Amino acid sequence: MVQYRATLCRNIMLDSLSVFTKSCQRMSPVIKFTFAALIRVGVTASVLGGLVALTIDVTWGVALGALVILAVIGYYAYKLASLSVWLDDPQAATLPDGIGLWADTLGHLYRVIRHERAAQRTLADTLSRFQAAAAALPDGAVMLDNQYNIVWCNPSAETHLAVSLKRDRMQVITYLIRNPEFIHYLDSRNFLEPLVIRLQHNKSAANAASAAATEVILSLQLVAFGDDQMLLLSRDISERERLETIRRDFVANVSHELRTPLTVVTGFLETVAIAGTSNETLLQKSLAHMSVQTARMQHLVEDLLTLSRLEDNRNRLAVSPVNIPELISSLLNDAEQLSNGRHTITKHIDAPWLLANRDEIASAFGNLITNAVRYTPAGGTIHAEWSQASNHAPLVFRVTDNGDGIGAEHLPRLTERFYRVDRGRSRASGGTGLGLAIVKHVLIRHDGHLEIQSSLDTAQHGTTFSAFFPPERAYAVEDRICAVAA
Ligand code: ADP
Asked: Whose CA is closest to 231, among 175, 191, 196, 177?
């Protein structure tokens, strides 16, 4: 009887399984999965319940089958809850594991997540590399949406446009850059050519009272990309514009300097052409004037060439020990000739030789001494000094005069090319306006610098020019080895 029941059960199960397998082949994966789960539960419950029913009692068999089904449902519910908790916050908990169908499901989920995390890592890596590259760009880049809201910008753009990505994200850019030309540029929708604008930036926003505005000149260009997005590219062209202004001013200044003597020479030539060479006095006078003017032009061209040589980085400084005491004495002799007894000229020499380029130093010191003679009224005193306070102190060449002095507002600009305080006086005494620019460049090439002090005070008027050199340039005469510092 028992054997018959067992055979019957087995046949029923096998038949059901074969029917189920055939139907499963036509089912969707979800239905298949559901059926597979039900079959597993059903088979486990039936086998265990069946065994108990066959060996002990049918009631106990049914009870055990029901208990198995309940346990499996409980297990599924528990796993589902664990999965839900994990999905809620994947970082806080670990992905739950499981057995049976759960093992397949969670294994699959784990693979998807691992793949997803790898893709995220690659994306984050690419993004951080992109951000590092964008941060290193000297040009600014601002990503704008179609309403001109700032979506993103790199640090250069923050500096150029005085915006902050943290503070101004999703702000309309025209609220931040309130420049009429820029607003017009955006409205025009013609972005083929870049726009050049000048912006005032406050250097210190912390203290509004002491905030100094600096002007930056920017070249801006808008480039459309993607889905209605725009990239605003900015480039700081302040330095380029500054150099362009210097170049323009320089050409204008040189032309102006040459025009006056050329006009004079042309005038005399015309006079001589009309009057002929028979008038000996006029001819002599004209020739004398022309020679003064040509000397002036020659002087200007020489100073320009000197300056250009000094500014040329390829022109390396060739140094040797220079006997400065002897050089100063020789320059002061020339100054005596120029002064022609109108000034009292004194000197104090108390420093070693200098490792330097003799011609350049002679030109710089000569300019300072000659200026003192030219700008100090008759009866004045001029004092030249070469000193070093201690072995480690800088070497100083100082020229002090008790002339009229120079207004404080002129001092910072004195070494600019063609800058003169008194134009007429400079020209009348044969000045080119390039002397102090030459001095400045010679000192820079010798790692030195120039300091100017002047007073207009009636009781103590006068000017002092001090040229400083680093102590390493000192050359004690008894030294046999000359450590040339080029
Ligand atoms: P310049 O050829 O005109 O003398 P410099 O560059 O040598 O050109 O000097 C620039 C200007 O500085 C001069 O035009 C003059 O106004 C002023 N200056 C230079 N040295 C003195 C000085 N010792 N005393 C007063 N003014 C001076």
From this structure: 191
Q: Give me ligand 1 centre to Cα 420, in Å.
A: 6
pLDDT in tens, 61-101: 888 888 888 888 888 888 888 888 887 877 766 777 777 77
Q: Which two tokens stand for residue 88?
A: 């809620």
Instruction: Convert 150-176 to b/e letters by CB count within 10 Å (16 or more is b).
Output: beebbebbbebbbbeeeebeeeebeee
How far is the centre of ligand 1, averaged over its atoms, from the C-alpha of 395 (Å)? 23
- The confidence score (pLDDT) of residue 183 equals 93
Q: What is the mean pLDDT of residues 217-233?
A: 91
Residue nearest to atom 21 of ligand 1 (CA): 371
Pairing of strands 474-475, 353-356: antiparallel
Q: How far is the CA of 434 from the centre of ligand 1 (A)?
A: 9
The reported pLDDT for the residue numbered 428 is 80
Distance of CA 311 to the CA centre of its chain: 24
| 220: helix, strand or coil | strand
Confidence check: pLDDT of 185 > 60: yes
For the CA of 433, the closest atom of ligand 1 is 8
Report helix, strand or coil for 398.
Answer: strand
Is the pTM of the predicted complex or chain greater than 0.85? no
Please check whether residue 423 is in contact with residue 375, taking contact to mean a CB–CB distance below 8 angstroms: no
**Helices H, strands E: what count in the chain?**
14, 13
Element housing 382 (H / E): strand 381-388
Higher pLDDT, 285 or 367: 367
- Residue whose Cα lies nearest atom 11 of ligand 1: it is 420
CA 374 to chain centroid? 44
| Nearest alpha carbon to residue 260 among 423, 34, 97, 451 | 423
Q: Is the dihedral of CA 301, 307, 311, 313 positive or negative?
A: positive
CB of 408 within 8 A of CB of 452?
Answer: no
Average pLDDT, the chain: 87
Give the separation between CA 445 and CA 449, rounded to whole angstroms: 9
In tens, the pLDDT along 228-258 reads 889 999 999 999 999 999 899 999 999 988 9
Termini Cα distance of the chain: 117
Q: Which residues pair with 397 in a beta bridge?
A: 386, 467
Ligand 1 neighbours (beta carbon < 6 A): 367, 371-372, 375, 401, 403, 406, 414, 419-422, 426, 431-436, 463
